[in-house]
Amino acid sequence: MSDGTAGKNNRDFLKLNADSQLAELFSRRLIFVMGKGGVGKTTISTALAIAAERMGKRVLLAEIGDSDAIGQIFINDTLPEAPLKIADRIWGARVNPKTELALYVRHHINSKFFANRITRSRLFDYLVAAAPGLREIMSLGRIWRWTQEAGSAEPFAYDLIIVDAPATGHALSLLRLPRVLIEMIRFGPIVKEVRELESVLRDPARTWLTLVTLAEELPTNEALQLYQAADADLGMPFKMIFINAVYPRVFTKPELERINDLKSFCRGNDTDASCLKLLEAADHLIRMRRRQQPYIDRIKSKTRGGGVEVPVYYTNHLSIGDIGDIASRMIRQMREQSEP
């Protein structure tokens, strides 16, 4: 980030203390960012990575699924499967289940010839596409191995791994699978590895689950269901929920009353049309916030720690600068929530 706000952003981050929500969030090794498709998971994942980088963390930003949005944001291209440095202290990678399964086969079959014959066959492609749970367990296995990797001069290659997870339904299948496999197979080398993976996912000292939603009915319902599943079903430690694309509350109650009076006056008199348009724009902003408020209140009342509001941006293509600004706003809001 090299825009004119960099100095102010750095000062904001230096004000963070050990009790802040964000410092606690980034004290873990693994963060899953989950939510309904289209709610802005990639935006929040990227903003969290930028925030962690500004706090001095080495971050791996991992993409699971068919989207290549993270690569488009940083390098205007699809991320590779091997971690690629995409910012000063941020690496990006895309998880490819087929590649992971091929590596697994080559590791467990002594003959390189037979391993290559298997992984290059059409049957192998069918297996990857059709075998229940195979893509999920290979994806999780890759993430788990990243959590274990050491750097050249550091205990770990990355301080923090942020996973931009698939949409809710697929993500739930992804995170339920280790426990299902343990119950089904029970013995053998695969179960040993899956148990180690399971211990990382369920460990509150190493892993957090964060949610992203919009202040709308269907995304809110799905986010709250996922929040309940984190405790009751997944057994995963939940930390934070981000409410994306929130309209600002910019007017006081007397100002709202004044806007209504002015609208009535303008409509009843021969006044400048631009004045009325300006008042109608303000009225639209007020209505949008009022429409969102019941969902914001519901989310904050039913989740631990409340929700972090991320402001709406009037564009369909957020730049890296926009996302950096979102990171700054998130930092300030979470710091304020941490203050007594």
Explain what this protein looks like in three dimensions.
The protein has helices at residues 6-14, 21-25, 41-54, 69-74, 97-108, 112-119, 122-130, 134-148, 168-185, 189-201, 217-234, 253-268, 273-302, 320-338, and strands at 30-34, 59-63, 84-85, 90-94, 160-164, 207-214, 238-246, 307-311. An eight-stranded mixed β-sheet has the order 3-4-2-5-1-6-7-8, with helices on both faces. The protein is elongated and about 90 Å long. Mean pLDDT is 79; it is low at 1-19. It has one domain (6-249, 294-338): Rossmann fold, CATH 3.40.50. It contains 14 helices and eight strands. With 340 residues, the chain is of the alpha/beta class.
Contiguous uncertain segments of 5+ residues: 1-19
Cα(first) to Cα(last) distance is 31 Å
Domains counted in the coordinates: how many?
1
| Main sheet attributes: strand count, strand direction, barrel closure | 8 strands, mixed
Structural class: alpha/beta
Strand order of the largest sheet: 3-4-2-5-1-6-7-8
